[in-house]
UniProtKB/TrEMBL annotation:
Keywords: Transcription, Transcription regulation. The keyword Transferase does not apply. This is LysR family transcriptional regulator. PANTHER family: HTH-TYPE TRANSCRIPTIONAL REGULATOR, HTH-TYPE TRANSCRIPTIONAL REGULATOR YHAJ-RELATED.
Amino acid sequence: MNFEQLRTLQAVVTSGSINEAATLLYKTQPAVSMAIKRLESDVGFNIFDRSGYRLELTAKGKIYYQKSKQILAQVSQLNSLSESYTRGEEHEVKIAFESTANINEIIKKIVPIQRKFPNTELHLQGAQMLNALKLLAEQQVELAITPWNITFESAGDFESKSLGPLNFQLCIHKNLLKPFNISKPEQITAKILRQIPQLTPIKLAFDMDKTSLAKQLSNSIVKIDDVSCFIASLNGQLGWGPITDFSWTSEMEENLIRFKLPEMNSEINAEIRIVKNRTKILGPTAQAIWDVM
């Protein structure tokens, strides 16, 4: 048994087939098949059940695979640590920010770190629709600051810590309510909202609770993938939808109303978290940013 065989095993399990694993590993299909057969020969039992249409792990194979994942994660972490020690201070640190985060407060915490490590380039990348977490999972950034749902843990081997609450309420332009003779938030009902276009995200990088933000209520839907476009749509009377406390300003109160709707669990309480890959050892600058959050 060697690490290359374990990496091949992981590729086959995660992709679901020998052929797809070969593509991921830039190897031929026979080479991948041979590596798995040699691994099974080395361990002395069948890791895969080949009786069905697709390869399935045997009972022993499932246990072996879980242990092998732990070993590969430790090796990856060790390699990352070696690289960190070798290169010293990072040349650059990339951080992806979701637009729903309270970026002003986060930047205040980053300023002293930038002064301490002036030779490290900070790349602050804005993201929408949970793509900050997707960038982190693909290791295109070192840190992600994003809304967090417990289900996101399955998207990667993440470590995270809370930066504070992320509160949503529903919002609508007052003029859209005039035909219904409504002037107070408590007068708004699902029956009325069904007659007004609903603003929803186009497509999130990771699934969220369909009973809250993405639940369709209106007969007419407008899909948007940008926060500034969303706010402009609210102000322009295009429709109604959720807005975060961070995006809400006192100036909005003149034309917009925020409200709750029991049918949609419309006061949505979530978290903003800073997230990193558990197996990736951060360099000194990125680690300092993580520590100060």
